């Protein structure tokens, strides 16, 4: 009787194959792309160029030595290149003669250089250390035998005009010879001597890439006449995102009705950003034109309040508008009272817009600027669609009236951020009862950041006469708490700056405030002290920690009772 043979190795049986973990990794192109993307993003500058080195760059170049890693590493190293020099240097017939690079013979485009070219998605032209002769671009059709340059994945050009050695010829060469696939063009550091280049580039883009071009960014010193010329050409394109940043007094041109009359003729415009932080005041003169922006969704300003108010004055119709943002400066040309009035007017117009759900206003400048809101805010009584309001200025006055107005006309409000500093006199500062006004008028609020005077709550402040929403919450004990949990306000997060200063409270004071807040917002998860970006705000840390702990205990108590 023979010995039974041991079972054979399944992997050795015909028709059965087993892939090792190593082979599986090397064959997973998507995973390799993610790995090398991470390597690039972890680089301190966030940039990877073919001929630069860092710790991470060395890893990428090492990866090129392994066949399985090569393509994924190349995608990272060659995704963005600084001009055409890294690519052309790989061509043997591209040589440096008398300090200038040029072509010296006909080219074979199947060589190594254009194996790398297929990975290039963005080219950045700036000052050149090594100079490419402008004549090299002119002889390209002769030496290569073709009229275009094979960059099949190129989608973006960036030109920095600030350096005197900027390769304008190279930028125009790419724009005019690459296949019409450019989606984005960014020109920064513009100055008067670069205007000729800008005119030629604009004409080339609008003629060759008008069916695909989606995003245009212009930044620097740009005359009003040249800006109008550029916009006239862009009206024939499908540009949907436009960002213009003009410094100095020339920035005033951005906010004149002649410019807005051109902007409204960009048929696909959905995102508009205008920046002129130090432009002087202009008056809203003449009849208001009927300017419509049917597809515009986001509107962003970085300027003084009068210019922003003027811009909204010209934009009579933007039915698709979803977001208005203003980063405001007082400016060197404006007296403070006039600045306040214009900023107030901008806020009024933005809030009164029938469709805008989001408004964000910030003030990074050092000059204190606050909003002295009138009692009625000058807004119609019709409800608005506003859902998110962020007022990041240094303070507001007439705060209680403003809160009451928001509660009256903004029933869909979801998040509210007001300044952490109230500039009202002490006896006019809003207190915790303003939360009841917001709870009643804004039933969808989820997040509030606000300056309120903390104080011990008295029984009479639970009455509707003091803004408390509804008689049903006058009940005490688990019954009232149970009702508030089942049908109460959905607010989840509350940040408070104590408008009364760094007051100190006893245990009973904190309990009275916590009970009041819990009755209003039974689903509240987080209560904390509120400080704005400039560090403004008041209140003791231990007070807010005590309120948070008390509210958490109240919530757990109700749940434990099964209410």
UniProtKB/TrEMBL annotation:
Superkingdom of this entry's organism? Eukaryota
What Gene3D superfamilies does the database record attribute to this sequence? Ribonuclease Inhibitor
What is the protein name for this chain?
F-box domain-containing protein
Query: Origin organism of this chain?
Result: Coprinopsis cinerea (strain Okayama-7 / 130 / ATCC MYA-4618 / FGSC 9003) (Inky cap fungus)
Q: State the organism's lineage.
A: Eukaryota, Fungi, Dikarya, Basidiomycota, Agaricomycotina
């Amino acid at each position: 009787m023979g010995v039974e043979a041991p079972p054979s190795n399944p992997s050795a049986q015909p028709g059965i194959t087993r892939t090792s973990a190593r082979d599986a990794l090397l064959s997973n192109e998507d995973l390799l792309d993610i790995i090398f993307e991470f390597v690039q993003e972890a680089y301190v500058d966030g940039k990877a160029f073919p001929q630069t080195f860092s710790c991470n760059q060395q890893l990428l170049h090492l990866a090129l030595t392994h066949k399985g890693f090569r393509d994924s590493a190349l995608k990272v190293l060659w995704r963005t290149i600084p001009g055409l020099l890294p690519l052309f240097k790989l061509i043997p017939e591209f040589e440096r003669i008398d300090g200038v690079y040029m072509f010296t013979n006909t080219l074979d485009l199947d060589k190594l250089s254009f194996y790398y070219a297929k990975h290039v998605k963005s080219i950045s032209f700036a000052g050149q250390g090594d100079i490419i002769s402008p004549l090299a671009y002119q002889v390209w059709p002769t030496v290569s035998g073709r009229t275009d340059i094979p960059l099949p994945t190129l989608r973006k050009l960036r030109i920095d005009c600030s350096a005197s050695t900027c390769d304008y010829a190279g930028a125009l060469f790419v724009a005019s010879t690459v296949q019409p696939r450019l989606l984005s063009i960014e020109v920064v550091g513009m100055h008067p001597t670069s205007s000729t280049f800008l005119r030629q580039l604009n004409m080339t883009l609008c003629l060759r890439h008008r069916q695909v071009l989606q995003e245009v960014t212009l930044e620097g010193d740009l005359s009003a006449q040249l800006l109008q010329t550029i916009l006239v050409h862009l009206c024939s394109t499908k540009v949907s995102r436009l960002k213009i940043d003009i410094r100095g007094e020339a920035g005033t041109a951005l906010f004149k009705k002649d410019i807005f009359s051109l902007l409204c003729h960009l048929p696909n415009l959905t995102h508009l950003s205008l920046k002129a932080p130090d432009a002087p005041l202009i008056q809203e003169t003449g009849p208001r034109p009927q300017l419509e922006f049917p597809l515009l969704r986001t509107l962003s300003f970085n300027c003084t309040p009068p210019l922003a108010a003027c811009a909204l004055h010209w934009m009579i119709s933007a039915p698709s508008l979803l977001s208005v943002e203003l980063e405001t400066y007082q400016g060197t040309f404006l007296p403070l009272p006039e600045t306040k009035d214009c900023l107030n007017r901008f806020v009024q117009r933005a809030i009164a817009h029938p469709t805008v759900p989001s408004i964000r206003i910030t003030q990074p400048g050092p000059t204190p600027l606050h909003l002295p809101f009138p009692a009625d805010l000058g807004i119609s009584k019709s409800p608005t669609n506003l859902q998110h309001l962020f007022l990041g200025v240094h303070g507001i006055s007439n705060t209680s009236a403003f809160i009451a107005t928001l509660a009256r006309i903004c029933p869909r409000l979801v998040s509210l951020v007001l300044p952490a500093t109230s500039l009202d006199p002490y006896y006019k500062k809003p207190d915790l009862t303003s939360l009841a006004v917001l709870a009643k008028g804004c039933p969808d609020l989820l997040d509030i950041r606000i300056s309120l005077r903390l104080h011990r709550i008295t029984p009479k402040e639970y009455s509707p006469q003091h803004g408390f929403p509804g008689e049903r919450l006058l009940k005490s004990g688990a019954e009232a708490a149970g009702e508030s949990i089942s049908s109460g306000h959905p607010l989840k997060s509350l940040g408070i700056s104590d408008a009364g200063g760094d007051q100190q409270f006893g245990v009973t004071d904190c309990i009275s405030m916590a009970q009041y807040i819990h009755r209003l917002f039974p689903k509240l998860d987080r209560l904390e002290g509120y400080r704005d970006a400039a560090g403004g705000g008041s209140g003791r840390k231990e007070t807010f920690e005590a309120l948070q702990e008390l509210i958490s205990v109240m919530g757990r108590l109700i749940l434990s009772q099964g209410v």
